[in-house]
Amino acid sequence: MQCVYHGSVTVPGLPRSSRESSTSLKDLFTLYLLADKLNNIITTNLIMDKIIGFSGEILKVPCEECVKLAYTSKVVGSPLRRICRDCYVHEASDWALEDADEDEFHFQFLIDVLMEFKRLVSQDTLDDERTKTDCLDREKCYYHQDDDEHPKCS
Q1: Which of 11, 20, 52, 125 has the most C-beta neighbours closer than 10 Å?
Q2: Domain ranges, ordered by start, for the chain
Q3: What pLDDT digit, counting tens, does each position of 13-66 carry?
Q4: DSSP code of 65?
């Protein structure tokens, strides 16, 4: 309701460390899924901005539960899936996927991560820091949804 009436998203008790952040980020993912189900593009875009900011402030990658939410609830190519993939490919430390149990991540998520690495390798930009784009540095609308009624941001 806060999004609808005030045009903002507040995360109560924003955590100060990555240990506390999983629940808040999971709440944002769940709220995104609800807004998307209600076809409220304005709210999904506000929540996506909060997810991106939250990831930059506290974490570099969404927790496994958030990835599972995005991949079991959304379709191929959705912004929520894209942000999960991009965080793990472009921002995660080398050990982010190494330490995971084999059934922790959704299979399609792992395929998406591999395909993004393949794209970077084919463009010969995998190790080029100049072409590495963090989620926070992308254009504002990169992870937004838009349609005729809600055009891309400027």
Answers
A1: 52
A2: 2-137
A3: 655 555 555 677 888 889 899 988 888 888 898 988 888 877 666 556 778 888
A4: H
Written as six digits, the tokens of 127 are 């190790």
pTM value > 0.70: yes
- Residue holding tokens 């540095």? 137
How many DSSP H helices and E strands does the chain contain? 6, 0
Tokens describing residue 147: 């349609």
Question: Euclidean distance between the first and final Cα of the chain, in Å?
Answer: 26
Residue type (1 letter), 111: I
Using DSSP, state whether 108 is helix, strand or coil. Answer: helix
Q: Give the DSSP H or E segment for 27.
A: helix 18-37
